[in-house]
Amino acid sequence: MNKPLVMARSLKQQALSTLTLEERKGFLIVTEDIKYIIMIAISTFILASSLIFNNPYEILFGLRDIIFSPSVLVSDYFVIGNIGAALFNSGVLMLSAIYISYKNNVNMNGPIMAAVFTIGGFSFFGKNLLNVWPVVLGVFIYSLARKENFNKYLLIAFFGTALGPMVSQVSFGIGLNAPYSIALGVFLGVFAGFLLPPLANHFVSFHQGFNLYNIGFTCGIAGMFFMAILRAFNLESNTSVIVAEGFNSVFTIYLFVLFTVMLLVGIFFSVDSFKELGRLIKQPGRLVSDFVSAEGFSVSLVNMSLLGFLTTIYVLLVGGELNGPIIGGIFTVVGFGAFGKHIKNILPVLAGVFLASLLQIWTPTSTGALLAALFGTTLAPIAGFYGWKYGVIAGFIHMAVVMNVGYLHGGMNLYNNGFSGGFVAAVLVPIFDSLKSMKK
Hints:
Largest sheet: none
């Protein structure tokens, strides 16, 4: 072996042995630029992989069908367009979110990583190259009105794209003539985006930070009011469940490759992956739990990859289908592996939802039950804070609630589980606090 290289490695090991953990992380050069590069690489992989499934011509026409669809829950872009178009849509929107973050001088922290993966996931079933931008523009206008930097509201803008289907539904799904319908859809999206910042800041106290999808709850309230107004004028499109089937083999390989690469990258930049992960999973995950800032980027990436493996295996074990919405759910869980979720606090919630699907009227393999399991992990902080038994109870109750709140917003809020999770947490947390105090 090259002697200078051996000497360099030896010197590096000696230097590391004299440093604290935080200093070692700095020595391993996990800079903001590297964080951005890794996130760009993941997004580019998703974008480029679109060409594995479809040629550019098919992707172009698939994107056309996606953009002009009402996109309300549950609309699988694998079916509406095609797999390549959905992956292209996802990759472009992830890269767009990363670019906007970079231009606004935002650190690649846990919340931003969660937002990027959530946008990517929901770009398989509801968010597209047209319907997200009016909401983002509305939040931007709010920041101008407040004379504050847009980066203060960037997370609200990103997560607020949950209301993208409202733009699409009004534009293409309620029977109004274009271009008037499109103008109305864009206007409502901008207006909704403008309203989100003050509402989001207010509603976080409603569930006391035990619902990780706080913007999902906020968007649910906003979507409920907009849907009520549309129904008052007899303007409503029928909801439906459009999902793909038969792609388990190819997407199992696809996801496992992605998560394996993330795991290896995380391990490469870690000083001691298992020790760091052991500290991370001791955190309850209650808002605001930025694992990247608290524990480091590398261990967060390891945690995210493990969550990806766990949720994919869960779907396969119960006999579910890996389609657009389900993969979107997996991506969202993975993203929040940097912002509140870990393998310890999501398992009880998954168990509670699965138990509910055995005893209630929904089968574990149905799309609704699988989405409730994946997105129901928004309640992971309950398990992390109160204990696993309380997490099981929260998951069990969440299953019943989430299946009944979608009507309120008519599918215009993509974060239906975040909407449900807000109510579940608001009811259970005071009860659990009371039970805890009685035991003392």
